[in-house]
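Suppose a colleague, Dr. K., hands you the sequence of a protein chain of 230 amino acids and asks what its three-dimensional shape might be. Before reaching for any lab equipment, you can write down a predicted structure in token form. Begin with the sequence itself:
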Amino acid sequence: MEYSKEDLMEAKRQILGVGENMGTEESKKIWEKNAQFWDNAMGDKSNEFHREVVRPKVTELLSPNPADYILDIACGNGNYSSYLAQRGASIVAFDYSKKMIELAKRRQSQYAKQIEFCVADATNRESILELKRNRAFTKAVSNMAIMDITDIEPLLMAVYELLEESGIFVFATQHPCFITLTEKYMTPHSYYGIAIEGQPEEQIYYHRSIQDIFNLCFRAGFVIDNIPIS
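The predicted structure, expressed as tokens, is then:
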């Protein structure tokens, strides 16, 4: 019997659940292997999906300006950080992949005075809080990353703590209802998948219902004031 790639991926979804050999360390190892490919694929301007779909809405909500001090979460090769720097903002950008941060520093070297790239673990509250500097962040942003993070509760708690009182956190993520089978929508689980065709290793996605995501935001202290749908 022959199985399609989709059949094999669904088998992985059925077999593996969150926490079953699919934790942060395994995910980190995968991103270390994918880092160079990802940097090459995204280049200086990111891919069309990020440029045409994600970036415009995120930027509209974030409304970056020269007075901003922004935390860029799971920054990858730093493309959005450089986009913010071009608009005059100062940025602390972090990722848990050391290789990715090395590549980001190299690719975005012209913005070294505005962007501080750091290695930090988004699943570890203390690791994130170590990014605190001599002023509170005015804004925080995460582009298509929270579905790649094992546990987002420590992240949300830490970001809330690092933001100034009137600060905002903008994140973009794939809507979980379009990814997961209906009968598994309410059950947190993890599975392997491909973000960019040709990447060396399948990455791990962590499914949470939209209710789960919102409830974690509320528990951290956030309120939601805008959900763009187009």
